[in-house]
Amino acid sequence: MQDKILFVVNESSGENNNDWQTDIESYFKEKDVTLDFYYLPDPVDCDSLDQYIKSAKATKVVAVGGDGTISLVAKSIKGTDIILGIVPAGSANGMAKELMIPAKLEEALQIIESGRQTSMDTILLNNKHLCLHLSDVGINAQLIKNFEDGDTRGKSVILK
User: Fold this and answer.
1) Residue 142 forms part of a structural domain
2) 91, part of any domain
3) What residues contact 144, with CB distance under 8 A and at least 6 apart?
4) CA 70, CA 131: separation in Å to the nearest integer?
5) Residue 26: what pLDDT?
6) Cα Rg for the chain, rounded, in angstroms?
7) Residue 47: inside a domain
8) Total structural domains in the chain?
9) How many angstroms separate the first and last alpha carbons of the chain?
10) Which structural domain, as residue segments, surrounds residue 97?
11) Residue 53 falls within a domain, yes or no?
């Protein structure tokens, strides 16, 4: 059966200016795979993403972004047989690093293509927040809040 891979791209993730679709299509050019792309709007519309993933009927859904993008996509495919792939494109890429997914696009796509898979435990907090990699309190939680409230990226923390 031919793979159909849906790439969910978060263009506002990280600090890169990649042409993700062109680069990904180039990698898969000679391969027997169907590609589809969904670009996350700003602000993110989770219902539209859920509907698109459901209608796409993909065998793999790949989050192109950081930990937040991965969490968003994971929540959309939770409870299905769809395989989650990761292309690290965030500010820190903590989960991708923990899973030893290379930052180089071609190397990450090789993993998506060849299917290095593992099961993963998740935690659902307050019946709303799906936690895959880590859940935070304290300084790191403040860093995330600062990021969400403004345009600060990286590891600087302003305690209030």
Assistant:
1) no
2) yes
3) 136
4) 10
5) 97
6) 16
7) yes
8) 1
9) 54
10) 3-120
11) yes
Q: Please answer whether residues 45 and 100 qualify as being in contact, where contact means their C-beta atoms are separated by less than 8 angstroms.
A: no
The CATH code of the domain that includes 23 is: 3.40.50.10330
Q: What is the structure's pLDDT at 111?
A: 94
Mean pLDDT per 10-residue section of the chain, whose length is 160 residues: 90 81 96 95 91 96 92 89 92 84 94 82 77 61 68 56
What is residue 12's predicted lDDT score, i.e. its pLDDT?
83
Side chain identity, residue 86: I
Answer for the pair 139, 133: CB distance below 8 angstroms, yes or no.
no
The answer to whether residues 87 and 64 touch, using CB atoms and an 8 Å cutoff, is yes
Residue 95: other Cβ atoms inside 10 A = 21
Handedness of CA 85, 110, 20, 100 (dihedral sign): positive
3-state secondary structure 14-69: CCCCCCHHHHHHHHCCCCCEEEEEEECCCCCCHHHHHHHHHHHCCCEEEEEECHHH
Burial pattern 47-75, b for ≥16 Cβ within 10 A else e, equals eebeebbeebebbbbbbbbbbbbbbbbbb
What pLDDT is attached to residue 158?
53
